[in-house]
Design goal:
The protein is mainly α. It has two domains: about 15-70; about 100-220, no CATH class. It has helices at about 15-30, 35-70, 105-110, 130-140, 160, 170-190, 205-215, and strands at about 115, 120-125.
Length: about 250
């Protein structure tokens, strides 16, 4: 018949410890630490290593993020070398853009869904049509087209103006044309539009308008070189677009 101790599922720790001490002596019992006591030095070592790694990693990322923030800050003027604002050397807006055409004739332009833009005097794809800029241009009242050089035969509509190869306006209209296109160009760039007609992205036309307006000061009338004008010294900032910062200004 089994003893009372054998019928117990588990021995109490206190009783088991007393038995070990009775068999091996108290010195032998205290020479053998428990499982958790033996593992404790390794646990402490792991915690120490983890703490060191965490501290070094945090320090590294802290320094890295601080440097990145300082470089991306618009107030860090000295952090940027002088350059013409080119993010991708050798590239321009057209590098990552798709071109759509209106063809080479009025019939082809109409078949492609293009619209006649009296501001640019070109047929342009419908997405590039800027009606607000056209209306602003028309407010000057010098845009009306004529079928003859003497400007006696008024063309009845803007649609009719786009249906013929040549028509005439006046020199004032060309000045307004250049000024209005620059406003349209600035608005398109400033708003970061995704549609730009080929005229406002054409360097030759932009330079033509700039030179034309300067040349007009020599076409008679007052000598602008002798007219004084006050110049007020200002202090401008510089908006910096850096591809590595992804800041939205």
């Amino acid at each position: 018949m089994a003893s009372a101790e054998e019928n117990r599922s588990f021995l109490d720790n206190h009783d088991w410890n007393n038995q070990e001490a009775a068999i091996h002596g108290p010195e032998k019992f205290y020479e053998n630490p428990s499982f958790w006591t033996r593992r404790l030095p390794n646990v402490n070592a792991q915690l120490s290593c983890g703490l060191i790694v965490f501290t070094l990693t945090s320090l590294f990322w802290g320094i890295f993020l601080f440097q990145l923030q300082r470089q991306c800050s618009p107030n860090s003027v000295t952090a940027y070398p002088h350059r013409p604002g080119i993010i991708e050397p050798g590239a321009n807006f057209k590098t990552h853009a798709r071109f759509i055409s209106c063809g080479r004739s009025t019939a082809e332009s109409k078949s492609l869904g293009c619209k006649y833009d009296i501001l640019s005097n070109h047929w342009v794809p419908a997405p590039c049509m800027d009606d607000d800029s056209v209306e602003m241009y028309q407010t000057d009242g010098s845009w009306f087209g004529f079928a003859d050089r003497n400007r006696t035969q008024l063309i009845e509509s803007t649609e009719a103006m786009g249906s013929i190869e040549i028509y005439y306006t006046n020199m004032r209209d060309h000045i307004v044309h250049c000024a209005a296109l620059w406003k349209k160009q600035f608005k398109a760039f400033f708003e970061e539009r995704i549609y730009y007609d080929s005229l406002i992205l054409d360097p030759k036309h932009t330079y033509h308008c700039a030179d034309f307006l300067v040349d007009m000061t020599d076409k008679g009338g007052p000598d602008f070189r002798k007219i004084p004008i006050k110049v007020v010294v200002g202090h401008a900032g510089c908006w910096i677009r850096d591809a590595s910062c992804h800041h939205s200004h």
